[in-house]
């Protein structure tokens, strides 16, 4: 068996095109572009690259971006103040706080300073509760992007056994909630799960989101299973042993080119959605 590739680059391109059409309509109707504010603390090279990429994509689809860059020694209070100001700014539709922030900052406090209507990255407790209860709200962008990618390939989820390897509040936990809402039976695992291999072998859908290179071995994959690798490690290596897993899986995401493009596309779509809702 050789797995079908879940091509996030191709699917995201379609999503960006529809987002650009909505952005143009919004601009025509209101006289301004939907605006995403990005907040970056410190000078971490990877974070700087991600933020630049997101700003570039904003411009390409007709959104305006506003950059707030703060020094690495910024305090929690100062960051909360900046984020709160953006939450109160009527010209800002969405707020992205690039994470992780420096270790001395209370990241959760900073996230919670984002107004729910501008939480287009889906990082607040309000957004998580909306995902868990099936209420209207913004999805965490990577989990939401994963579901959109699976939908594009018409991957059935109802009644399937899904294993999520990872428990972060902005990836592992919310993707489990979204899968549960699609009537999948969800098991959460992580790097300390006893006999992780046994849990993965039973899964019809595997979402790897733990941030450890090739933690999920190819030989663990159930024949025909759907494998979504949401990890990214140095050297373009995901959390799944890709080559071996692709020989057993029915569907698989590449790294890069799978989940990553969907994350950015959903961020921009939700920014336009926030602008439309406010208007």
Automatic annotation (TrEMBL):
Pathway: One-carbon metabolism; tetrahydrofolate interconversion. Residues 140-278 form the Tetrahydrofolate dehydrogenase/cyclohydrolase NAD(P)-binding domain. Keywords: Amino-acid biosynthesis, Histidine biosynthesis, Hydrolase, Methionine biosynthesis, Multifunctional enzyme, NADP, One-carbon metabolism, Oxidoreductase, Purine biosynthesis. Pfam families: THF_DHG_CYH, THF_DHG_CYH_C. GO terms for cellular component: cytosol. One of its GO terms (molecular function) is methylenetetrahydrofolate dehydrogenase (NADP+) activity. Its EC number is 1.5.1.5, 3.5.4.9. GO terms for biological process: L-histidine biosynthetic process; methionine biosynthetic process; purine nucleotide biosynthetic process; tetrahydrofolate interconversion. Residues 6-121 form the Tetrahydrofolate dehydrogenase/cyclohydrolase catalytic domain. NADP(+) binds at residues 166-168. Catalyzes the oxidation of 5,10-methylenetetrahydrofolate to 5,10-methenyltetrahydrofolate and then the hydrolysis of 5,10-methenyltetrahydrofolate to 10-formyltetrahydrofolate. PANTHER family: C-1-TETRAHYDROFOLATE SYNTHASE, CYTOPLASMIC, C-1-TETRAHYDROFOLATE SYNTHASE, CYTOPLASMIC-RELATED. Homodimer. Belongs to the tetrahydrofolate dehydrogenase/cyclohydrolase family. This is Bifunctional protein FolD. It comes from Saccharothrix tamanrassetensis.
